[in-house]
Amino acid sequence: TVLSEKPTTFTITVTSEAGENDETVQTTLKFTYREKYPDEAPLYEVVSQENLDDSDVMDIIKLLEQQAEENLGMVMIFTLVSAVQEKLNEIVDQIKTRREEEKKQKEREAEEEEKQRFHGTPVTIENFLNWKAKFDAELLEIKRKKMKEEEQAGKNKLSGKQLFEMDHNLDTSDIQFLEE
Q1: pTM of the predicted structure, to 2 decimals
Q2: 43 or 20: whose pLDDT is higher?
Q3: Which residues have C-beta within 8 Å of that of residue 44, sequence separation ≥ 6?
């Protein structure tokens, strides 16, 4: 877009190629020709940007300075814009790489958490014996509570085997029943 004729001032919007998820970075550059252009570098500035960090904008300005110095004496606007285009494409690639690295890092962290979850105390004889003593005490306590509950509820019913062991008349009771 031409902004003025004297001195010639115009803006060019440079957009990167679409990256992953159609992400793009974009900047608008403003150029102003000096009297001695192209023997003198044009004035330039970054007017606006999208999806760029401040460090990326500083890199673009440094790139413009370098390219302008290298191309003194030649028409350079196309060269400057092409260099910025390449830089924006690099930035999109860096963003993609950074996201992939973050994804891989999260996967690694998830794997480490999973490993930590399944990594317990190494079993030694002493550890096992301490655990076994505590476990047996817990089981004994559970059995005692159960027995007390049964006594309080009046559930001292004997099993069939216990009945036969206590009353030997039951040994022949089925035969007597069948004979009658």
Answers
A1: 0.56
A2: 43
A3: 29, 30, 31, 32, 64, 68, 80
Q: Bridge-partner residues for 10, per DSSP?
A: 2, 31
pLDDT, tens digit, 9 for 90 and up, residues 64-100: 889 888 888 888 888 889 998 898 888 888 888 888 9
Domain CATH for 62 = 3.10.110.10
DSSP 48: E
pLDDT tens digits, one per residue of 26-61: 888 888 888 888 788 888 888 888 878 888 888 888
Cα–Cα distance between 15 and 6 in angstroms, integer?
Answer: 28
Count of alpha carbons within 13 angstroms of residue 10, beta-carbon side: 9
Distance from C-alpha of 139 to C-alpha of 87, rounded to nearest angstrom: 71
Q: Which of 37, 41, 47, 42 shows the shortest CA–CA distance to 13? A: 47
Structural domain containing residue 64? 9-102
